Amino acid sequence: MTDTAELRARTREFLAAHPPVATPRGDFLAARFDAGLAWVHYPAGLGGLDAPRSLQAVVDAELEAAGAPDNDPRRIGIGLGMAAPTILAYGTEEQKRRFLRPLWVGEEVWCQLFSEPGAGSDLAALGTRAVRDGADGDWVVNGQKVWTSSAHLARWAILIARTDPDAPKHRGITYFLCDMTDPGVEVRPLRQITGEAEFNEVFLTDVRIPDDRRLGPVGEGWKVAQTTLMNERVSIGGMRLPREGGMIGPVAATWRERPELRTHDLHQRLLTLWVDAEVARLTGERLRQQLAAGQPGPEGSGMKLGFARLNQEISGLEVELRGEEGLLYDDWTMRRPELVDFTGRDAGYRYLRSKGNSIEGGTSEVLLNIVAERVLGLPAEPRNDKDVPWKDLAR
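-> C-alpha cells emitted (395 positions)
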C-alpha cells in the first residue's frame, strides 16, 4: 500500500468498527495490530501493511484525532525501539509471530541485557558465557549484566553472551531472547543519584535458554547487536517532539512566568540553547524521514550525542535560573519506576537525571568515535586487540 488516501480511508474504517470510546484498550490495540496499523512498514500479518514507513504519520494522525489509546510507548520503549526491529531483521517466522504482537500491544515488557561491569564502553569484551548442553540442546548461561532498565518489570530480554572464547571478541558472541521468569535469573535494584532504582543488575546462574530462542547464527551476535544499538540511539536521540518539547520547555516557561529571575547573561544562554534545541528537533525530523527509506545508520549516534549535551546544559541552566529554588529536591524516596522519565518531576530531578544521558545508550566518548569513523570517514583508532582471542585479552 502506497496511497495516502487509501490508507486514511482504511484507518477510518477501522475506527468505525472499533470505536475507541466503546472498545476496551487492550482489545483496541490488539485489533489495530491485526489490521496492520501498528507499524505500517512491517510485513502484513506482523502489524503492518508492507507500506512506506512515512505513511505511519497518516495513521497516527487519524487515530489521535479520534482519541484512540496508544500502547504507552515510554513503558515499553525498549521492546518497541530495540527488540522489535532486531527480531524483524533476524528472527525466524515463528519468533516474529510469537513475540511482535504481545510486544507492541504492551502485554510483555522487554529489557536489554548487554552491558556488564567489565564491558560497558567496550561492549564486545563481555564475559557472560553461554555453553551448549548437547549438540541440539539448550544453552546454559552464566554471568552478570548491569544498567538494565525495566528488568524488574520485564517478561523478556534481549541478551548477548560469549559462546566462543577462542575467537576474537567481536566474533565469539551470540544473541538470545531470554525469559526473565526462568530459574537462575536474579534482578537487583541499582539506586541512582535521583534516589530511584530505574536501573538494575541482573545475575544469570545456570539459566537454560532453548536454541529456538537464539536470534541469528551462532557467533554472529555482534552483527545482530549492531541493529539493536543503532535503533536504540535513534529511539533515545530522535524522539518526536513539538516545539519547546523536552528539557527546553520548562526553562522557557519559567523564563516567561518569572521575570524577577531574569538576567542578561541567562537570557543570552537561554536563547542559544533554545536555538540548539530547535535545530536538534528539526534534525530529528529529517532523520526520521531518512529512516523511511531504510534502516538506521550511524547518524543516530550524532542525534544521541546532541540529546545528551543539550539535556545536561539546559537542565544546568534551569537550576541556575531558579536560584535557591533550583537546589531543592522534591523526594529522595527509593522508587522502582515503571518507565524511563528524562524530563519529569522538578528541576532538581531533571538536572540529576540528565547526568546519565551521556552514559546510557552508548557513552558520548564511544559515539564520538562512531561519528568520526563511520560518518566523517576519519581514520580509525588503533585497536591492538581486534584479532586476539577473547580468552587471551588482559582483564
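The beta strands are 110-113, 129-132, 139-145, 156-162, 173-179, 185-190, 199-209.
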